[in-house]
Amino acid sequence: MAIKDIDLEKKALAKEYKELLKISYQTLSSDDKKLIRKAFNFAVDAHEHQRRISGEAYIFHPIAVAKIVAYEIGLDAISIAAALIHDVVEDNSNYSIKNIKKVFGKNIAKIVDGLTKISNLDKETGTSQQAENYRKMLLTLNEDVRVIIIKIADRLHNMQTLSSMPLEKQIKKASETLYIYAPLAHRIGLYNIKTELEDLGLKYTDPETYNDISKKLIENKKDQDDYIKKFNKAVSKSLNKEKLKYLIKGRSKSIYSIRNKMIKQDVSFEEIYDKFAVRIIYKSNAENEKFLAWKIYSIVTDHFTPNPIRLRDWISAPKSTGYEALHIT
Fold first, then answer.
1. 280 and 246 in contact (C-beta within 8 Å)?
2. I need a surface site. Which of 33, 111, 130, 148 has the fewest CB within 10 A?
């Protein structure tokens, strides 16, 4: 590489590191920052001469995984450090779990060991083998859930950068993601990551359907935004009268979920009536949260006619992951 390119890469690396610290700056102690700095330096040395298929320096991958772990999932300094060095043993024969344990201690070494073992599982092929891998990963949940969470973050970044891989590997990784990693993310309660994994999985396993739905969602965005504004204006006035502390958010349903509805209901995109969702997130103490949920439901249904068949009550009976909400259409 030219000296100019090396300098630019070093600047980009320094920027990524600063962003990583900035993400969880308020929750990190001075010892946490020292640990993350040590892990960062360790990873930089271990991956010094390695590059991804895209040509990018490999070190940017573990930093990206650590940022997902810190920002999107909100894990602790031990998890961030483990994410930074998660590929060291697998990718550099000069390093071992024994080295990791000596430098970082038993906890981080155990997480990295678990991640290394899962990476070896990923190299095996075949549907029956994938099912067995899924079972083994579920068993890992009983040992340390951070191993699975960091692995899901690793897979998310790999899927976000999958375009540089050969077509055959794209399809293999995407299929694995839909079969193993998206369900795992759902099971743990990482719903936003699960949704992104599903959409990215569909993008590479069925690009025609993915692009078609994506295009139609963009075309329908104005109608969606207009409806959300109308909803917000109508409901906010009533919620304010009750002096509730709340936030209203609108979002499109995921491409993957829309595609699944089209298949299950045997309908076209135009016939799907819930292509986007509006969320009302409210603040409450534990004693009043159920009462307020039904109160907000009552306010919403004063303005908009619900379909009673479509009511989903996860307030009275929360999901196994702890998810609580009322869903109405």
1. yes
2. 33
**Is there a catalytic annotation at residue 91?**
yes
- Find the catalytic residue in 9, 56, 72, 90: 90
As a residue count, the chain comes to 329
Chain segment 10-24, per-residue pLDDT in tens: 888 889 888 888 887
Give the model's pLDDT for residue 130.
62
Q: Is 90 a catalytic residue?
A: yes
- Catalytic one of 9, 16, 76, 91: 91
Asked whether 146 and 79 are in contact (CB, 8 A), the reply is yes
Smallest CA-to-CA distance from 112 within 139, 146, 75 is with: 146
| Tens digit of each residue's pLDDT (9 = 90 or more) over 29-59 | 999 999 999 999 999 999 998 999 998 999 9
CB 250: neighbour CB atoms within 10 A?
Answer: 15
